[in-house]
Amino acid sequence: MSNWLGAGLALAALILGATLLGWQGALFATTGIIFWLLLQMSRLMRLMKQAGAAPMGSVANAVMLASRLHAGMKLAELISLAGSLGVKQGDETFVWRDAGGDAVEVLLRKGRLVEWRLLRTGEAAGSS
After folding, report:
1. What's the N-to-C CA distance of the chain in angstroms?
2. What is the pLDDT of residues 58-100, one digit of tens each?
3. Which residues are registered as beta bridge partners of 115?
4. What CATH number does domain 55-127 carry, 2.60.120.10, 3.40.50.300, 3.30.1450.10, 3.50.50.60?
5. What is the pTM of this model?
């Protein structure tokens, strides 16, 4: 959901609640908004806890990770797929490696996946 859509829905809930039920309706809408924000925060904290427990920059299978990536993917979705945090290579470039030596290099802009490439073991050694 986009930020504008979420803010618009929250504002609509506040206006509708206040219009129909007065201050109690506005309070009820505010409670619903806070509950939704707490759910989002809880989901993000659970994701970070799981990713923090795994070795940094490791992934079970780099080829499978590369096949599941798509442009526009959010950083949280990428971390969820990889199961760990990536190793920072540049300002916006991160790398995940598997046990076989294959790697996935991703470029993020504004928290969204722009491009990625799979580096096979032979190719990664040849480009260094």
Report:
1. 40
2. 999 999 999 999 999 999 999 999 999 999 998 999 999 999 9
3. 107
4. 3.30.1450.10
5. 0.76
